């Protein structure tokens, strides 16, 4: 497992995960904390199911780890990931300087790019309500914003595909609170029709905060300059799709081959945010050519574990009752 995780994420990203996120709480089970953390990462990198993870540890043991992260300690880890996204990778000044330095001439003002990411998933909602035209199967849609350095800056809530198109999600996601007044977001043609509604709702934004393709007027064809603008803009925006491709090639859990089975769409959203966070750490480490120091590699040594002050304390939510056992069993079967 360690070699597989290492090959996909690199030493620094795994070190970051184990020392910044994983050590926040005690995860139940007889295994070392580091071993549980590596198994957790391997679950996403390999795309293994809850059932197939039983090759490495009992299914019930892995589910307790999964449940601790995504259910019992959801608030803590969501807060920590939000802090990392907001402070570690991108600032308005970095975005503006990078855009002026590297963007095509016509798009020097564009600092952010936003697009919807569809994830194959199933949960309690009717499949017809989750229908994704991209997959022709059920799915969840999430708005993902990257900066011009390919760093994911923020991720929206995940919603059922059929009733939540890109424009509607843009209006509802509170984008004004997530960007600076000097930011300009590059959008594809699925968003502009709802921008007037967004501007009515968000008085701190105006049309200059958005860049999008030029639409035909009254059925008239675009002139040469307009067509050139649209073609160049589409090429520029392709870096969003590159980010989505990087996600799928790094984490088999998001390669769309198999649907993610869950009892709560918030879990899928949290998985997505975690994976994008790890991509950011890996890609920034690679882009800056950070030296791999000995302490970054300690986790790969057999028998090594990080010291922790977290004691295995029985939480109220972990008290064994018949109701808890039935609930745990039901959720495990659904997964």
From TrEMBL:
Transmembrane stretches, start-end: 12-31
Keywords attached to this entry: Membrane, Metal-binding, Transmembrane, Transmembrane helix
GO molecular function: metal ion binding
Keyword check for Ribosomal protein: no
UniProt superkingdom: Eukaryota
Residue intervals of the DDE Tnp4 domain: 126-280
Keyword Cytoplasm: no
CC cofactor: a divalent metal cation
Name recorded for this polypeptide: DDE Tnp4 domain-containing protein
Native source organism of the sequence: Linnemannia elongata AG-77
